[in-house]
Write a structure and sequence with these properties.
The protein is an alpha/beta fold. The protein has a domain at 129-380: 3-Layer(aba) Sandwich (Rossmann fold), CATH 3.40.50.1110. The chain has helices spanning 2-41, 48-51, 54-64, 146-149, 159-166, 182-189, 215-221, 224-228, 230-233, 257-267, 270-274, 285-305, 324-332, 348-351, 364-380; strands at 69-70, 75-85, 95-108, 114-121, 138-143, 170-174, 205-212, 236-241, 244-250, 307-315, 337-340. The strands form three sheets. A five-stranded parallel sheet has the order 6-5-7-10-11, with helices on both faces. The longest helix has 40 residues, at 2-41. The termini are far apart. 34% of the residues are buried.
Length: 381
């Protein structure tokens, strides 16, 4: 009788565990469907007339060819590259060749629609082109990642270029790097991307503006998104040494096997992605201190190259409200000025125009807004 009771309890426990596992699998499946549906809701659809048009037929031929790169499960990136080399690899290197041109299209696999098409041109100094202002009195360095660089927007549509046409007293330099964060900015300032990037710049009073989004924290601290995008693990790691920072391998070299295992587990769960559950669950104060110290080091390195009048961190609208607000006091300890746009509200009609559908990078419209905002902030200060 006693053994029978134990058997029943054990059976109930096993059935309960099996039910829980099946329930979690069902939730994972529903979550993955929800994520995909949210994505497809952003993609424009073709009209019946467009579906039979010449452009649609050209897309279909692209899909059948080998001339594309899989950008994600739902997007194809069709790219024509001339002289661009990007490879973090084992040595953690990234190289951009001078006078290079990059033409690309993003296409939805499901609806077979063109999402965006753009050209990116780098000048002889490995920087994205801006207008030359021969009468400029100041330098304006625009730092950041792909939002600054102008990922998927044209050569004359990104906000650094637009600012170079508005602010004639400034020579504007687009120092954005795709995938950038303070650790990659330091790597760049040490002339490891290319020695000429920070050379051939007149020595005069300068202002630097670093456009921050929450994801930059993940590129330094390495959370779930870091594992989901392998290149983040291979970003250079900077360690504090004698009141400064020195490169010490890559991000992945400073994660334990347990951390790597947990990051892999979390990155593969649609349920955790849907509810935005991260690992580690919360950032520690030391993480904010480290990030702010790296930004301060970027400021110090630019000061060593140029007479830096002001250094701003711009909290990008809608994509910096989580970590950006929390990092402000840590940045202010380093006398870094803040342009806080994190809680900027847009009406629904404008919201739809702010990002490239299905991708999330700023649209040409948003770049135009950013140019207006930065121009206004600089005139006020």
């Amino acid at each position: 009788m006693y053994l029978m009771k134990i058997y029943k309890n054990l059976l109930a426990l096993i059935l309960g565990l099996l039910f829980s596992i099946l329930f979690l699998f069902a939730l994972e499946f529903i979550a993955s469907l929800s994520i995909v549906q949210n994505y497809f809701n952003q993609i424009p659809r073709l009209t019946s007339q467009e579906q039979n048009g010449p452009f649609q037929k050209s897309i279909t031929s692209y899909l059948k060819s080998e001339a594309h790169i899989l950008y994600s499960d739902e997007i194809l990136r069709i790219a024509s590259e001339e002289g661009i080399e990007r490879d973090f690899g084992a040595e953690g290197t990234l190289k951009l060749r001078p006078n290079s041109h990059f033409h690309q299209k993003l296409i939805s696999k499901k609806s077979k629609t063109l999402i965006v098409e753009s050209d990116t041109t780098y000048d002889e100094y490995y920087r994205r082109k801006t207008e030359v202002n021969p009468k400029a009195k100041f330098n304006l360095f625009l730092l950041g990642g792909s939002f600054t660089l102008g990922h998927f927007v044209g050569d004359q549509e990104n906000f650094p270029y637009l600012l170079s046409t508005k602010l004639k007293e400034f020579q504007v330099y687009n120092m954005g790097i795709g995938g950038g964060a303070p650790n990659l900015m330091l790597y760049d300032l040490e002339e490891k991307i290319n020695p000429q990037r920070w050379q051939n710049i007149p020595s005069r009073d300068s202002i630097a503006v670093y456009t921050f989004i929450d994801d930059h924290i993940n590129r330094v601290i390495c959370r779930v998104e870091c594992y989901g995008s392998r290149w983040m693990l291979e970003l250079p790691y900077y360690q504090e040494q004698d009141s400064s920072f020195a490169e010490n391998g890559m991000n992945q070299d400073h994660l334990s096997q347990l951390d790597l295992m947990m990051l892999k587990l979390f990155s593969q769960s649609s349920l955790l992605k849907l509810f935005k559950i991260n690992y580690p669950l919360q950032l520690k104060e030391s993480d904010y201190v480290r990030f702010a110290s790296l930004v301060a080091e970027v400021k110090k390195r630019i000061e060593a190259k140029n007479s830096l009048k002001d250094f701003y961190v711009l909290l990008y609208p809608g994509m910096s409200s989580h970590y950006g607000r929390q990092i402000i006091p840590f940045l202010e300890k380093h006398k870094i000025k803040i342009i806080d746009l994190s809680n900027t509200q847009f009406d629904n009609q404008i919201k739809k125009q702010l990002a490239i559908p299905g991708d999330g990078h700023p649209s040409p419209f948003m770049h135009k807004l950013m140019a207006e905002i930065i121009s206004e902030q600089l005139s006020i200060n």
